[in-house]
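Supplementary Data S3. Sequence and structure tokens for construct A.
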Amino acid sequence: MEKKELIKQFQVEQDVVSIEPYGSGHINHTYLAEMSEGKKYILQGINTTIFKNTDELMENIIHVTSYLREEISRMGGDPKRETLTVVMTKDGRPYYTDEDGSKWRVYDFIEGAQTFDAVESKEDFYQSAVAFGKFQAQLANFPADTLHETIPNFHNTAKRYQDFEKAVEADVKGRAAQVQEEIAFVRARSKEVSELHDMLAKGELPLRVTHNDTKLNNIMIDSETHQAICVIDLDTVMPGLSAHDFGDAIRFGANTAAEDEPDVSKVSLSLELFEIYVKGFLEGCGGRLTPNEVKALPMGAKMMTLECGMRFLADYLEGDVYFKISREKHNLDRCRTQFALVADMEKKWQQMCELCQ
């Protein structure tokens, strides 16, 4: 079905004029639809390879955005700009299935705002921290356990460790012999991988609604004020730990090198950027985090980085089947970068803990 026909299956205003590819996302297929009198919509093809249960996925998004809309209105904000608005199909469903079985959804377009793929300034990083912290605060009373796990065990580091060990044991490509140093690095930290989940199980950390993909490009920044206004890409919103959201942002944004930098001597944790993010995140959280959650933030950063490195290494051992690569040993470079960052965090552990407190 043509895109112009697809959008007509939804409760949209005005006639469609054009539909063009939009944004730089890697998971879903995203298009900008422009209508006859200036109204705009986002049309998105849902990646059902990754998100296998579309009903549960959209149920999460509807529940969370409905709750956010009420919270934003209560605080005097503008829910049309400060959270996503799902446009229903003509028969009242949150997504449409075309004749090929592909699943599509539509959001209202948020005017006067943009996203950034990389940290262009310290202010951008700070604004993203405030936004993800505010997301935690706004959803602090939402019953997290009512949400579906759109990707089961997504940030279950202990489970990721088990998967890593299976990949080492299977060694389907005969690559394990050349990465013994990296395997030993992971195993030396095997006792830490369940620490955060153990704290959750003991009731020492609360279950939260977490975003689980806290990169800068999942924040809409107002084009005039340059302030963060809206958290987007809610596909991975599910029950989790605040330390995971914080930690993934640090892993991505406070590294002095690119995620796949071959020269690991360039890799380090920027304590300046770490401090900026801590300030923004805690400000956004507005005192909603418990003392144990604040104390767990450095461990969140370390575990998200170690977990990501494990996943890159496991994928390398399995023949590069999950992460896209653009060169030989690309996943190995990525893995080494993550492990170098973990090692640098360990050197700076005392400062990280002091900055969070």
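Construct B, processed identically:
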Amino acid sequence: MLELIDVTKKYGNKVALNHLSVRFEAGVYGLLGSNGAGKSTMLNLITDNIPRTEGQILYNGQEILSLKRSYFKKIGYTPQLQGMYEDFTARDFLHYVGALKGMKASQCKKQTEEFLDLVVLSDDAHHRLGSFSGGMRQRVLLAAAMLDNPDILILDEPTAGLDPTQRIRLRDYIASISSERTVLLATHVISDVETVAKKVLILSKGNLCRFDTPRHLIDETADLMRKEGQTPPEYLTLEDVYLFHAKENLSWD
């Protein structure tokens, strides 16, 4: 279990994340919000890539700062930033990441081929990363994050550069592994989370607007639309929910 208690991040006078308290168990959790909402800040705090200003982050009841390396071995992280070793091939890069994670060579090689196939890079695995497009690099980072079957999988815009068929394939894979681990999925592609998310967390300007199941958010929004004299679409989607509240600056009062 991963728990954030009153977590705040400030940059001078700017509040990037404002007293966030939330708990994640096994399952997929969708993180939604516009640019600057605080999604990447939250993920960087969970991975301790940046220091928090206030609050606690607990893994199975223990502060992650005290767990140190034992905690980081539990995490797979796909960031938006794509700093990589340009001269490595995709396959060599995954072998390198596996070694850093302490994987056995045979296990690492097996998983490398499995995940290269999953992200549709098997045919390009022998090419250097310096020749890859941004989307291809993102897919390599995604494969690296999944190595060694981490307990917490943190994905920041993981479907960038994927076509619709590849996105569905990845979404189905994420759903298939989520019963045994926590998956945090930050995305602008709302349809990526609607069918697989256990709960959806919506951030706006560093504040938590909502943390609930997709079904409940959809039903609640339909009721709000009726109260405002609007007729909800016959098949209201999570994207409709997000757009409806974005017009009101994501106010759920």
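Residues 105-118 form the longest helix (14 residues). The chain has a mean pLDDT of 89.
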